[in-house]
């Protein structure tokens, strides 16, 4: 390359004291073309991205890399403010499509350098392809979840009908003919009635798991102090029978669905009351602001949770190893997690066996 051509290339930057080597360190393609579309500058970044060496591209038309001239209709050359940013569809030396994130500025000529467009182009082809894949996966996941929720509702309804009939006739048999049964027969009948009731409860709770998250939440400001007061009132008999103490520190107001927030904290308090140790149960609820989120902690002095169960207990119908004798279907924490995730938050538990558990809930500070 002649010294004169190199001097002219550097003049494109209107006297800015930068060397050619510095522009060649830029990973993006830096190029310039005049009003006729002739390329007058081409850095090493452009060589790497497009595949043409500088010597071949100087003096070539910009249409060589930008064959779709309609892309130029809204570039810097057509704007009165002389600055433009957007995406362009380019081609490399092999004809492969390149999606370029481009920033352009119109520059006046200097000396023998004509008016020109200075363009910095970043290759975002792989990024856009990944974004399209993620979008397609998200749509497929949304469709799959909708089908799964629909299936759960339909299956639950269809299962409850014959189960309701079994339970009704078992209870009818129990009322009319229990006196005619021996001890084993009465015990067997009790198993049938109890099994039908428990199965009905499990199907009902399966519906709850499927429903939460599929029904749009009624988002509004929710004072969690009021929510916890209502929950304690609803569970007053359970709290009294357990001899438990529930203390609630000042809680924030968050944006959410009030009834769903109520269900989350009811599940967490019920969970602490059911899984209690021989000590008098104490439950403490407090909140801490962390940047743009609230972290709410529900602490208990129960028997704690084994490390291998810390994640399993949020799966429907999966119980911790120490919870097999506790009543309930095992869906409460799954419902709580689905609600909190639907509100843009997280829920997890930290625990050491024998030292209680702390359930953490985070919610956005809107």
Your description of this structure?
Helix content is 42%, strand content 23%. The chain has 366 residues and is α+β, with helices and mostly antiparallel strands. It has 3 domains: 3-123, PAS domain (Beta-Lactamase); 135-211, Helix Hairpins, CATH 1.10.287; 219-364, Histidine kinase-like ATPase, C-terminal domain (Heat Shock Protein 90). The chain has a 5-stranded antiparallel beta sheet. A hairpin with a 5-residue loop joins strand 3 and strand 4 (97-107). Helix 5 (125-177) packs antiparallel against helix 6 (183-211), helix 7 packs across helix 9 (258-274) and helix 9 (258-274) packs antiparallel against helix 10. It starts with a helix and ends with a strand.
Helix-strand sequence: HHEEHHEEEHHEHHEEHEEHEE
CATH topology of the largest domain: Heat Shock Protein 90
Kindly give the count of domains.
3
Summarize the amount of helix as a percent range.
40-55%
- Class from secondary-structure proportions: alpha+beta
Global shape? elongated
- Spell out the CATH superfamily of the largest domain: Histidine kinase-like ATPase, C-terminal domain
Per CATH, the class of the largest domain reads: Alpha Beta
Question: Mind sketching the topology for me?
Answer:
Elements: H1 3-11, H2 20-24, E1 29-34, E2 39-42, H3 44-50, H4 54-57, E3 83-91, E4 97-107, E5 116-123, H5 125-177, H6 183-211, E6 219-223, H7 224-234, H8 236-242, E7 245-248, E8 253-257, H9 258-274, E9 282-290, E10 293-300, H10 332-342, E11 346-351, E12 357-364
Parallel strand pairs: 7-9
Antiparallel strand pairs: 1-2, 1-5, 3-4, 4-5, 6-8, 9-10, 10-12, 11-12
């Amino acid at each position: 390359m002649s010294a004169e051509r190199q001097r002219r290339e550097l003049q494109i930057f209107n006297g800015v004291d930068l060397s050619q080597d510095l522009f060649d360190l830029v990973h993006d393609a830096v190029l310039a073309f005049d009003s006729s579309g002739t390329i007058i500058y081409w850095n090493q970044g452009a060589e790497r991205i497009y595949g043409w060496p500088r010597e071949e591209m100087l003096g070539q038309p910009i249409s060589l890399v930008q064959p779709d001239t309609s892309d130029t209709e809204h570039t810097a050359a057509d704007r009165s403010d002389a600055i433009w940013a957007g995406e362009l569809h380019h081609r490399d030396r092999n004809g492969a499509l390149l999606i370029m994130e481009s920033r352009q500025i119109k520059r006046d000529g200097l000396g023998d350098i004509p008016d020109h467009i200075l363009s910095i182009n970043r290759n975002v082809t792989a990024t856009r392809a990944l974004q399209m894949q993620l979008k397609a996966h998200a749509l497929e996941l949304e469709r799959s979840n909708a089908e799964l929720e629909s299936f759960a509702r339909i299956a639950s309804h269809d299962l409850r009908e014959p189960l309701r009939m079994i339970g009704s006739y078992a209870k009818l048999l129990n009322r009319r003919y229990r006196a005619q049964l021996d001890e084993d027969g009465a015990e067997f009948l009790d198993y049938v009635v109890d099994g039908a009731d428990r199965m009905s409860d499990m199907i009902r709770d399966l519906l709850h798991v499927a429903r939460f998250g599929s029904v749009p939440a009624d988002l509004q400001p929710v004072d969690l102090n009021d929510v916890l007061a209502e929950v304690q009132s609803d569970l007053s008999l359970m709290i009294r029978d357990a001899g438990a103490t529930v203390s609630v520190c000042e809680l924030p107001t968050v944006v959410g669905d009030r009834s769903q927030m109520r269900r989350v904290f009811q599940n967490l308090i019920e969970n602490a009351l059911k899984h209690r140790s021989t000590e008098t149960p104490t439950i403490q609820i407090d909140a801490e602001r962390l940047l743009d989120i609230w972290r709410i902690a529900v602490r208990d002095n129960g028997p704690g949770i084994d490390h291998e169960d810390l994640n399993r207990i949020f799966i429907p119908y999966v119980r911790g190893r120490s919870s097999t004798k506790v009543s309930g279907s095992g869906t409460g924490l799954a419902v709580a997690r689905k609600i909190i995730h639907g509100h843009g938050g997280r829920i997890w538990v930290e625990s050491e066996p024998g030292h209680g558990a702390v359930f953490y809930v985070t919610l956005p500070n809107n």
